[in-house]
Amino acid sequence: MDNDQRMPMSRRTALRLGLAGLASAGFAAGQGTAFADTLADVKKRGELVVATEMQFPPFDISDNGVYKGVDRELIDAVAKELGVKVSYLDLPWTSVLPGLEAKKFDLVIAPVTITKERMKHYAFSVPIAEATAALMKRAGDKSIAKPEDIAGKTVGGQKGTAQLAQLKEFAAKLGKPVEVKEYVDNNQSYADLAAGRIDASVNSLPNLAYAAAQRPDAFAVVTPPFGQPTYFSWVARLDDKTLMDAVNAAIVKLDGDGTMAKIQKNWFGQSMALPTTVPEPAI
Question: Which of 60, 109, 211, 263 is deepest in the core (most CB within 10 A)?
């Protein structure tokens, strides 16, 4: 979020040249010297199979069985640029990354926080949104005015997320112990917060801002965020560089033609400037 120019020409040009190079190399499986990888398979079958957890608004939402959200709109636009259709899989968050490693699908579009440890195992796309960890409280709760006020209280979050990990690190530095409750998904955490069973919920700032905007009578975001500045990206397997290069080229193009900003405004209420390369992780 430190760039005034969202799309340096050198980056855009490089990605376009990279995508053109992939095309010139040939994707058909029968071409002897051409690489055989996931991108080639996707092109051959005309389908990109993606996985996410559809319980992560506003990024992924299952609305009476209809898939909606930031990721749905963005991946549809990316797939159009690649000339393929998309098949969507709805999986629990804890199954998404293991499923990718097991090659059960091509790409993870569940927003994944870029971390130092994850970069050892996965290929990340350019960021699709901010992911800085923050807290949400019940509306009208005057006992929590800043993040440090969770000392001695109970906070819930989704198991296995970078935001929950940051919460634990943050809580360990406070004067009183914080009871951390782990949930299968964030909706369960929000339900317990609304019911008074926990005192706060942790998630990324965009997720919490969306939840609070949907239910201002029930929730309020605690500001400022307590986490290190971080970002959400999509991920592929480390050896699927050509697929990620093509996805990145498409994202940059969509950023340039205004499609990305339109999607952001639709779901976040505003657009956000993001790094145009994969940033070094802060966590």
Answer: 109
C-alpha distances in Å from residue 180, one per residue of 172, 198, 200: 11, 9, 10
Q: What's the pLDDT tens digit per position in 26-79?
A: 333 333 333 448 999 999 999 999 999 999 999 999 999 999 999 999 999 999
Token digits for 220?
């309020």
Show Cβ contacts of residue 121 under 8 Å, excluding neighbours closer than 6 positions.
101, 238
Q: What's the whole-model pTM score?
A: 0.78
Cβ-contact 96, 110 below 8 angstroms: yes
Q: Which two tokens stand for residue 192?
A: 């317990």
Is the pLDDT assigned to residue 10 strictly greater than 70? no
Same domain, 35 and 175: no
In a domain, 245, yes or no: yes
Q: Could you tell me which residues come within 8 angstroms of residue 201 by beta carbon, excluding any fewer than 6 positions away?
A: 135, 136, 155, 156, 157, 186, 189, 190, 193, 208
- Peptide linkage before 111 cis (omega within 30 of 0): no
Say yes or no: 162 and 62 in one domain.
no
